[in-house]
Structure formats: structure tokens, C-alpha cells
Amino acid sequence: IEHHVDGVDLNCGCPQGIARRGNYGAYLLEQADTLVNIVKTLSASLTIPVTVKVRLLPTGEARVEDSIRLYHRLVDAGAHMITVHGRTRLQKGRDTGKADWDAIRQVVEAIGDRVPVIANGGIENFDDVKACLRQTKADGVMSSESILEYPPLFTNSHTESTSRQRTGPGRIELSRDYIQYAKINPPNKGGQGSGLKCIRVHIHRFLHADLQSTPNIRDLVCTAQSVEELEQAIDLMEKIHNDAGHVVQEEQKSWYVRHRVVGEDGLSAQDRKFRKDSIMTCDEPEDDSAICVAAMFGNDDNGDY
């Protein structure tokens, strides 16, 4: 594919069990020699830049120093850019915790004169983008989970300047736009996932807030066997919005904060799902951050991505 793309990124960020079993993702970071040899081979064999997405090593108090030592080796091996997720592979699901922007700043100070360093982690809106750049001095910011729920993240929606209101498209419009893009560029073409599963996953992200209180529509989204059924689910949700006088400007993130929003019972929405499986009838993995890639690529072993 090197003649069709501008670069190749080696993703060493996935912390899930399937990555451990497949010996890839964040688990490669703990096999330094193997990882360095992979980067060397790619860099020597390709005519386009090779970049690496990393996490911090899970080595306790020495994690930043150990990580920086590894990142230097990756740059020596030919990596043209390093993207640093400011968490270890142990920080996932309900144990995600806060991204360590100070650690990313130390990485920038250590290798930033050699290659561009991109910061990743803890980016919910554009205010966070600006704050992250100020604190880390990184060359750029990457968003992963938040942008899955709200692709126009790099706008002023949900920022202080808009009183935390949504100023861009709402959930229904996002869902319809995505369906149209999926029709033009089917996700089962060119190795892009497993077709309809991929589409279902993204619609589930966009409509997550609505689906928590509409189990019939949630089931339809999770089990749809055609794009037309997904469009039907969106139509049903739009009717509910219209009947309720739904205000797009008041929409807030839901899936992205699923591990953080705590109710009167002291449980997050995700914890509550474990306590009462009947609330969520959609066939989701235990860590539902997993579903996006696991479902897209047909992993059905309880979705352990």
C-alpha cells in the first residue's frame, strides 16, 4: 500500500486482551527488541515515513524514564514521529483514569528535537486540545474515543466559549451523514472492517445517549442486518426527538464519559451495566470501548478488544 498512502503508523496503543493474545498493540512495548526490529525493517523497506503510536510503559515510578529510553530506540530505528498516549496499558475501561500530560511533556523535552511528538489522551473538546498543547508543548494532538462519538471535536462545540453547548450537528444529523458516507465508501471494501458491523458500531457511538433509554431502538441498532434497518432506527429516534421537543444544543457526550458519570448509587453507567445486564441487551463486550474495532473486524470472543 505504500504507493497509495503518505505514511504507515504502527499502533502500539491497544491494551485489550485480544492484543495480548495476538502479541501486538501495547504488549509489543514490553518486547523492546522485537518492536525496534519491526520499526527498523519497515523503515528500511518502505519509501514513506513510518510512525509509532505508543503508551507509557507499566513499570511503576520508572515508567516515564523507561518509556523515554524505548522511544529513543524507536527513533534510532527510523520512526519519523511518535504519538504518546499518556496512560499505561493497565489504564483501560473502568480503570482508565486521567491521562498524564506531564509525562508527555517530558517525552517532548527528551525527543522533541529529533522527531515530532503528538499528544493523546484526555481530549474531550477543543478546550482540552488547547490546554494539552500548552501543557505538553507537543507538536499536535490526537483524539481517539471522544471523536468516535462526536467527529466535529476540533470545533468550539461543548467549550467554555459556547457555554458547553453543542454548536455543531446533532446526533441524528451525524448518524445520517455517516450512513451516506458508508454508502459511498462501503466499509467492507478495501479491507475496511466487516461491513455492516462497522456501520452499526459507529451509529451506536453517535446515538449512545439516546439508546440508554430506548431499548427497542438500541436492539435494532445492535442487530440490524441492513443499512435500511439502521436508517429505520434513526427515523424512530428522530420521531422521539421531535415529539419531545429535543434541543440539539443541549446534547452532551455520553459514550465517552461512560466510565466517569456517577449516579446516586455511586456507580458509573458502565458499572451499572454489569450489575443489571437486562439494561443493556445489545451484545457488547465487557469493556465496551472494545466494540469499535473488535466488531469491525469480526472478533466475536465476547468482544475482548
* Cα-atom radius of gyration: 20 Å
Shape: globular
Share of residues in helices: 40-55%
The main sheet orders its strands as 1-2-3-4-5
Task: Provide the structure class.
Answer: alpha/beta
Number of strands: 5
The termini sit apart by 25 Å
Percentage of residues in strands = 5-15%
Q: What is the averaged pLDDT score?
A: 87
Low-confidence stretches: 267-305
| Main sheet specs | 5 strands, parallel
Order of helices and strands: EHHEHEHEHEHHHHHHHH
Number of helices: 13
What does this structure look like?
The protein has helices at 17-22, 32-45, 63-76, 101-111, 126-136, 145-149, 171-184, 196-206, 208-211, 215-223, 227-244, 269-275, 291-296, and strands at 8-11, 50-55, 81-85, 117-120, 140-142. Mean pLDDT is 87; it is low at 267-305. The chain is of the alpha/beta class and 305 residues long. It is built from 13 helices and five strands. The chain has a five-stranded parallel beta sheet, with helices on one face. It is globular, with a radius of gyration of 20 Å. Helix 5 links the parallel strand 4 (117-120) and strand 5 (140-142). The protein starts with 7 loop residues before the first strand and ends in a 9-residue tail after the last helix.
